[in-house]
């Protein structure tokens, strides 16, 4: 089930990137990021308050965890800019490459409080195939 949820997350991410790219033509990059976060915040607040019937909490937690919000703004802004110039497929491929590289570092070194999962060299062939696919998509794009 968890693999299916990750797959659905990927579908939603690609859809969001494409819609944000179109939206940026109307609102600009930062206007798009603002609109996406305000709409998402309002809908999420309504869901928490009305459906879950819970209070909204923003802490206590370490101050640096609020950086996730900053990263969200940067993600929406960067993807909105790139999708218009590169298209959905190439933007997604490059984004996945960045996610993969940083995820390997996060796992291997246990950064940001992640459980440490050392890099296994047996993953190299799969990474090489992903890199080859990225090169092919980039060259064709």
Automatic annotation (TrEMBL):
Keywords on record: Membrane, Transmembrane, Transmembrane helix
Membrane spanning stretches: 34-52, 64-88, 94-112, 124-140
Source organism superkingdom: Bacteria
GO cellular component: plasma membrane
Protein name: DMT family transporter
Protein's organism: Anaerofilum hominis
């Amino acid at each position: 089930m968890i693999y299916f949820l990750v797959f659905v997350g990927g579908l939603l991410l690609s859809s969001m990137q494409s819609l944000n790219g179109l939206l940026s033509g109307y609102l600009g990059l930062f206007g798009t990021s603002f609109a996406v976060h305000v709409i998402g915040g309002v809908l999420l607040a309504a869901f928490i308050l009305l459906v879950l019937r819970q209070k909204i909490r923003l802490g206590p937690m370490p101050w640096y965890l609020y950086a996730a919000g900053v990263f969200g703004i940067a993600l929406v802004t960067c993807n909105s800019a790139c999708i218009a110039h590169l298209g959905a497929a190439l933007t997604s491929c490059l984004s996945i490459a960045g996610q993969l590289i940083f995820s390997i570092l996060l796992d291997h070194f246990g950064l940001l409080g992640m459980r440490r999962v050392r890099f296994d060299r047996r993953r190299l062939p799969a990474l090489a195939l992903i890199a080859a696919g990225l090169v092919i998509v980039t060259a064709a794009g």
